[in-house]
Design brief:
The protein is α+β, with helices and mostly antiparallel strands. The protein is built from four helices and 14 strands. The strands form three sheets. Strands 2-3-11-12-6-5-4 form a seven-stranded mixed beta sheet.
Length: 229
């Protein structure tokens, strides 16, 4: 994987950066026990997953996208047909989100502009290039005394998945809340696909996490081979 994967360090902005009012803090969970890339956690005020006048478009068939204008995005995927049932627009039933339905208001330019569609069982995972998923933690949960007294950092108190942020906003948030960390744009080749993300590095690292873990793996294999010799 490392042979084909690449990274480049990012020149971070200097000085005060414009930050959306719903952001209260940002932390990095290094996920040390796993090979996953560092997880970015946002302490949010209110529900950052919703915003006024949220409308959806279809950048390509079956892919639904809602962009906030301040760097947030929501994405769903449903390849089923759209038809009218009992006076409302619905999709064929699929099994994403355990069959849960999502009502989306379609925006200008779509064939169903200004109409609501009930997506029945859409799927999660598709997103536009240039956006990256983060975990959000409500500021009330982040300040909960039950967890505080037990030494749990706010970013380790659960959280909600499914909010995507633009690379530009992520970089500005890291510059504001984690200015001591180096940041890289990483392109990892996994299973024949390219996964691109913005990743911070621990202060003691000189390369992103995947490269550090590969070094550790190679050292372990060399030591095991030496013991077996």
């Amino acid at each position: 994987m490392i042979d084909k994967s690449t990274y480049e360090f990012i020149d971070m902005p200097v000085g005060p950066q414009p930050i959306p009012e719903w952001v209260r803090d940002m932390a990095v969970d290094w996920v040390d026990q796993y090979s996953n890339p560092p997880r970015l956690a946002i302490k949010e005020r209110g529900n950052a997953h919703e915003w006024p006048d949220k409308v959806w478009t279809r950048p390509r068939a079956g892919c639904f996208a809602a962009l906030s204008g301040d760097g947030r995005a929501d994405f769903l995927q449903h390849g089923g047909s759209i038809f009218e049932e009992d006076g409302e627009l619905v999709t064929a039933r699929q099994e994403g989100f355990a069959g849960r339905s999502f009502k989306v208001l379609m925006g200008p330019g779509d064939a169903f502009a200004n109409r609501w569609i009930s997506l029945r069982g859409p799927w999660f995972g598709w997103h536009l290039t240039g956006y990256q998923q983060v975990t959000t933690v409500d500021e009330k949960l982040a300040s909960d005394l039950f967890w505080t007294k037990r030494g749990h950092p706010w970013w380790a108190r659960g959280g909600c998945f499914g909010l995507w942020l633009s690379e530009d906003l992520i970089i500005r948030l890291l510059a504001r809340y984690q200015p001591h960390l180096r940041v890289a744009r990483v392109r990892e080749h996994i299973g024949g696909k390219i996964f691109e993300s913005i990743q911070p590095l621990k202060p003691e690292w000189d390369e992103p996490k995947a490269w550090i873990m590969e070094r550790e793996r190679q050292r372990y294999l060399a030591a095991r081979a030496e013991r077996a010799a």
